[in-house]
Design a protein that fits this description.
The complex is a heterodimer of chains A (386) and B (324). Chain A has 386 residues and is α/β, with parallel strands linked by helices. Chain A has a single domain, classed as TIM Barrel (Alpha-Beta Barrel), CATH 3.20.20.30. Chain A contains 13 helices and eleven strands. In chain A, strands 1-2-3-4-7-8-9-11 form an eight-stranded parallel beta barrel, surrounded by eight helices. Classes of the chains: A alpha/beta (386), B alpha/beta (324).
């Protein structure tokens, strides 16, 4: 079992009277650079602290023009962490490949990170969020095609002796010759986040990558999607591989269940009602009909559309409570989903520095050791034990 | 390759069931499909006489529309292809720019066996019609641009249709927003038998649209049919005009090459296309005439069909008068 601390680096200062989208069109005059200075340094401290208290990995991701997350280039943040940490994996999940032209830049930057960290990089690659096609001008009808081709290009850039010519439908490069090459061979582990589309799962299974379900859904959505993933993975002729599955969730631990809710609830609602507002934007061509229909079906089970705390708790939209409560819930979810990686969001929305740090400390001291012990022999997949 | 050779090699036209019980009647129109370089294109035809190609808007209006009946009545053979990715037509995923789209439109004309046609285009279709008249002027006998996008006018942007909510979009699109689904209903009619390659059935199956019984029977309305139609229509429109947004930066400088008699029509209530765009087309195309229609927004062919048919007939007569 591997434990990761994921940070979105959200903007916690949206004014109370601003209730519009936090994505794309959120007026950037609402960003206050002096506050941003303090915030970036605080958030980076929180990631570094996670390594100090025993997390196995630190996670950053990419978003553009949004109060939801302030890491337009996650590689910058990975680079800052690279020199301030020495043990933890650094997972960038991921670079939105269609937004990089040429995508060999991703191969290069990831290779630099991998070499500098001595092979601590986990290389995530994503299509990018729907809103990002409005903010970049990239044609969303080409999103899937560009992603697939760019992924292929990055993998070739890491593994094929250069120089070679790449001649694709979207990218043509006369001489691909990545310098430096990655330290992990044949290449750093590749993680692909997904929203449940079969296409993505098949790609991950075919290439032996790792899958992380996008968060903020009812736990039943994860159960269905992960069962489908495990089936697709096994059908591809692979052995069960919990280490290739990750679960991403907001987690908050306090001394008691009551204290946890009292300290956490307002910050979760800030996130759900203010920062998630706009994430659902899907430009034309971004999704297949099948994916759109599936997503429409799951919409009522998405945190943006949840209005009461009881549902948050019952659906495990966030795991909140005493060390005992959090441990028990996580053991149950890890077992049912067959995941070998747990990615916790320990800061969410407007959760302040002191509570974030206390949360990380309590989790590391009172939850993580019990989960490590519980799964000392590894996690098994329900299909295989049945 | 000669024109004749290309026509015979590209086109395998087959008629499928009629949209109405009077199969084959020129007054009712019929659905057909053709294969254009491996892409299945659904076509609605109505009337006989002067060939007229109608290129639809981003909303993919085809089928038994009032404007087609009026045009057929006025002596036109209306040919209304569903552009790739719209309705029941296959998508073309290899398009990288509008020039690729224009070439596909030209191949559709080849496939329809149309040497020279009156070309009427609505919004997106107006843009493509203007491009066609620039690149293949010999194919265009007269040109009617109905609220054509395609140009960028500083400080007068086309309303951003992608991602717009219905309650914002529809009042800008139509003088009578409530008519939206009625205008698109004919496009949702699905031929009750189709010609076997299977590809055209995909969208219908996705949406659960049933395949009807015997020829001529109406297909039961499916609540998902319209959302699905619009989902595909917006994707296909994005493929062409996501960025640069519904225009070709090079088009304005090329419009002087349009030789056909040209009419530019815009509805006075159009909340999508600012008047400056109609004015820019009219100024750039030699001899172009401009008409503003009252009680009409962005889709004149649907909102003022009789008026549009009459205007198209007039501009076509002027084309006859001009060419010996």
């Amino acid at each position: 079992m591997q434990f990761f601390s994921f940070h979105l680096m959200p903007w916690p200062y949206l004014p109370a009277d601003y209730t519009e989208s936090a994505w794309i069109t959120v007026p950037n005059k609402l960003y206050d650079p002096p506050r941003g200075h303090d915030l970036y340094n605080r958030y980076l401290d929180e990631l570094e602290y996670a390594e100090q208290v025993g997390f196995d990995g630190l996670v950053v991701n990419e978003h553009h023009q949004t109060a939801y997350g302030s890491m337009p280039s996650p590689n910058l943040f990975a680079a800052m962490l690279a020199r301030r940490t020495s043990r933890a994996k650094i997972a960038v999940i991921g670079n939105a490949l269609p937004l990089y032209h040429p995508p060999t830049r991703v191969a290069e930057e990831f290779a630099v990170l991998d070499v500098v960290t001595g092979g601590r990089l986990i290389a995530g690659m994503v299509v990018g969020g729907g809103p990002e096609y409005y903010s970049s001008g990239i044609n969303p009808a080409q999103a899937r095609g560009r992603f697939n081709e760019a992924l292929d290009l990055v993998l070739q850039a890491w593994t094929r002796p250069g120089p070679f010519e790449f001649h694709g439908e979207y990218y043509q490069i006369p001489r691909v010759n990545t310098w430096p090459r990655p330290l992990q061979q044949p290449h750093p582990p590749v993680w692909i986040p997904g929203m449940g589309s079969r296409e993505t799962m098949e790609l991950v299974a075919a290439r032996g990558f790792s899958y992380v379900g996008l968060p903020f859904f009812h736990i039943s959505v994860f159960e269905r999607n992960y069962a489908e993933f495990r089936r697709i993975w096994l059908e591809a002729g692979r052995e069960p591989a919990p280490e290739n599955l990750g679960l991403l969730l907001p987690i908050y631990v306090a001394e008691t269940d009551a204290a946890a809710r009292a300290e956490y609830e307002e910050h979760l609602w800030y996130f759900a009602r203010r920062l998630l507002n706009g994430v659902q934007i899907a430009p034309p061509g971004y999704q297949s009909v099948a994916s759109a229909v599936k997503l429409m079906g799951n919409a009522p089970k998405y945190l943006l559309n949840v209005s009461d705390w009881e549902t948050v708790e019952a659906g495990s939209y966030a795991i909140v409570g005493s060390p005992d409560t959090v441990t028990e819930k996580l053991i149950d979810h890890i077992r049912r989903l067959g995941v070998g990686n747990l990615l916790g969001l320990f800061q969410l929305g407007s959760l302040p520095a002191d509570l974030t740090r206390a949360n990380l400390t309590l989790f590391a001291e009172q939850v993580m050791p019990r989960l490590r012990k519980e799964f000392a022999a590894g996690v098994s997949w329900p299909e295989v034990t049945a | 390759m000669t024109q004749a050779a290309s026509v015979s090699s590209v086109a395998s036209v087959s008629s499928v069931a009629s949209a109405s019980s009077a199969a084959g009647s020129p007054h009712h129109g019929e659905w057909g499909s053709l294969d254009v370089d491996g892409i299945r294109i659904r076509v609605f035809r109505q009337g006989s006489g002067v060939p007229l190609v109608y290129l639809h808007s981003p909303f993919g209006e085809v089928g038994a529309l009032a404007v087609f009946a009026d045009l057929a009545e006025a002596g036109f053979q209306v040919l209304a292809p569903e552009l790739p990715g719209f309705g029941q037509s296959d998508p073309v995923t290899s398009w990288r720019g509008v020039a690729d789209v224009v070439f596909t439109v030209r191949r559709i004309l080849d496939g329809l066996g149309v040497e020279r046609a009156v070309v009427v285009g609505s919004s997106l279709g107006g843009w493509l019609a203007a491009e066609l008249a620039v690149w293949f002027p010999e194919r265009v006998r007269a040109l009617a641009l109905l609220a054509p996008v395609g140009l960028r006018v500083a400080d007068d942007p086309v309303f951003p249709i992608f991602g717009a909510e219905d309650d914002v979009l529809l009042p800008r699109l139509l003088a009578r927003p409530a008519e939206f689904s009625a205008y698109l209903a004919p496009a949702l009619a699905w031929p009750v038998t189709h010609d076997g390659d299977g590809s055209g059935g995909e969208a219908g199956e996705d949406g659960g649209a049933g395949e009807g019984g015997g020829a001529g029977e109406a297909v039961a309305p499916d609540p998902l049919a319209l959302p699905l139609h619009l989902f595909r229509a917006m994707e296909a429109t994005a493929r062409i005009g996501w960025n640069p947004y519904l225009h070709d930066p090079a088009l304005a400088g090329r419009l002087t090459l349009v030789g056909a008699p040209t009419l530019v029509v815009r509805g006075e209530l159009d909340g999508i296309l600012p008047a400056a765009h109609a004015a820019a087309y009219t100024a750039a195309i030699p001899g172009a005439r401009r008409v503003e229609l009252a009680d009409c927004a962005h889709l004149p062919a649907l909102e003022q069909p009789a008026e549009v048919a009459q205007l198209v007939a007039t501009i076509t007569r002027s084309a006859k008068a001009a060419s010996p």
